Every structure is written in structure tokens, then in C-alpha cells.
């Protein structure tokens, strides 16, 4: 079984390494990081990177995982990547994304008419690609599975394990990595975070990442109309 995890300059580390840690425990599996620009690929936080192989090194992956990151918007016109995603989708068992990786699936035309999720900051942006924003940690629609922000990639990968090997195997993997989150604060979603925390984080996201793709698209439409 082949698993291809798509990364690019500015990907988020846990988006890629979380699913890797889970999916590498599937039987007879080969997991590879791939990119349209192969080689050492820097994450969006300093001091971490992964070595990616060429996209062509994975011609018919059984599972595709597209990582998100702070630079995802810059890769929405990467035709080499989008063409590859469309091609491997046809033969894949599961095509998945983590965080803003769903925007790349959308740009490839793979979300049209589907329910999908993304990081809360970009959730409404999936509408730009014909998808129905769904505020859930993991959304399965057909053979496409999208995960919300960053850490939810672990949940998504466990669901893939379940679908491929059954509940008992997925539970064994979960126990093996001792995935039993008990954070000190219950503020890990927009619906749970205190209002002041949400406002502060939203401001930080706007300053650090710029407008969401939905906002950029709306601004572009307004500019064209004027």
C-alpha cells in the first residue's frame, strides 16, 4: 500500500507528521512525502523541514494526504500539483487533506458538490470551490476526507485506518501512539474558545497570514465589478 503525503514550502509540520505517524502503522505500507519541488522542504515554522520526493515517484498512491500550511494560498495555482492531484484521485482509495490542504483539493476540482472542512480561519473558503463548509473535526464525503486544523490530521488518519483495516486495528494504532488528548483548557474550537481568545487569535491570523481565500476572492470580485 502506498501513501503519498503532499508538502510544499511553508507547510505546517504536524499536518504532515501527524498522519505519517498514524498511517505508517498500516500493514505493508510505504509512506512518502512528495512535492512539486522535491528536496528539502521547509515548514512554516523555523528549524523544521522534510525531504520530499517528486510527485511522479507516486504514480498510483492508495491514500493521498494533502498538508496545509501558512503558504497554501500561494500554491493554489501550482498546475503541476493540481494536475497530479486530479490524476491520482481517480485511482486512489482515499484522498484526504489536513487544515488548509482542503483548499488545494478544492483548487483541483475535487470538492465540488461535497461537504468539506478546513482550519476555522479558512472554513468559508471551501465555498469558493463549490463545497459546503462543514464545521466538524473530520468530514467524510465519498472517498474524500477533509480534516479541520492541524491536530485533526491525527483523527483523520485514524479514520482512514478504520476504513482500511477495521475498528479494532484503528483502536490498536490509537493505543500504540497513546492518543488520548487531555489539554489543560477546553478551547480547541471556535465554539468552545472564550470570545476574547477567539478575537485575539483571529487578529493574529489576519496579521500573520493575511485575509482568508474567501475574503481575497470577494475583494477580487468587487474590484472586477467596479
Describe the structure.
This protein has 226 residues and is an alpha/beta fold. It is built from seven helices and ten strands. The protein has helices at 13-23, 79-91, 101-107, 152-165, 167-176, 195-209, 213-225; strands at residues 2-6, 30-35, 39-42, 49-54, 63-66, 94-98, 115-116, 132-133, 138-141, 144-147. The strands form two sheets. The protein has an eight-stranded mixed sheet, sandwiched between helices. A hairpin with a 2-residue loop joins strand 9 and strand 10 (144-147). Helix 1 runs parallel beside helix 4 and helix 4 (152-165) packs antiparallel against helix 5 (167-176). The relative contact order is 0.14.
Let me know the CATH homologous superfamily: Class I glutamine amidotransferase (GATase) domain
H and E order: EHEEEEHEHEEEEHHHH
**According to CATH, what is the topology?**
Rossmann fold
Assigned CATH class: Alpha Beta
Number of extended strands: 10
Q: Which structural class matches the secondary elements?
A: alpha/beta
Terminal Cα span: 52 Å
Number of helical regions: 7
GO biological process, one term: regulation of DNA-templated transcription
Protein name: DJ-1/PfpI family protein
Pfam families: DJ-1_PfpI
Organism: Sinosporangium album
Amino acid at each position: 500500500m502506498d501513501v503519498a503525503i503532499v508538502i510544499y514550502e511553508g507547510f505546517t509540520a504536524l499536518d504532515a507528521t501527524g498522519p505519517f505517524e498514524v498511517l505508517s502503522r498500516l500493514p505493508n505500507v510505504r509512506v512518502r512525502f512528495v512535492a512539486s519541488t522535491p528536496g528539502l522542504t521547509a515548514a512554516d515554522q523555523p528549524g523544521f523541514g522534510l525531504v520530499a520526493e517528486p510527485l511522479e515517484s507516486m504514480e498510483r498512491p492508495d491514500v493521498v494526504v494533502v498538508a496545509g500550511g501558512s503558504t497554501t494560498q500561494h500554491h493554489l495555482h501550482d498546475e503541476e500539483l493540481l494536475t497530479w492531484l486530479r490524476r491520482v484521485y481517480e485511482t486512489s482509495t482515499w484522498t484526504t487533506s489536513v487544515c488548509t490542504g482542503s483548499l488545494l483539493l478544492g483548487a483541483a476540482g475535487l470538492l465540488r458538490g461535497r461537504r468539506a472542512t478546513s482550519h476555522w480561519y479558512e472554513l468559508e473558503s471551501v465555498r469558493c470551490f463549490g463545497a459546503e463548509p462543514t464545521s466538524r473535526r473530520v468530514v467524510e464525503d465519498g472517498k474524500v476526507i477533509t480534516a479541520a486544523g492541524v491536530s485533526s490530521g491525527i483523527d483523520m488518519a485514524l479514520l482512514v485506518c478504520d476504513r482500511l483495516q477495521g475498528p479494532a486495528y484503528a483502536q490498536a494504532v490509537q493505543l500504540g501512539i497513546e492518543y488520548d488528548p487531555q489539554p489543560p483548557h477546553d478551547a480547541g474550537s471556535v465554539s468552545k474558545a472564550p470570545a476574547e481568545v477567539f478575537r485575539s487569535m483571529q487578529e493574529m491570523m489576519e496579521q500573520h497570514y493575511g485575509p482568508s481565500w474567501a475574503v481575497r476572492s470577494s475583494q477580487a470580485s468587487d474590484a472586477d465589478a467596479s
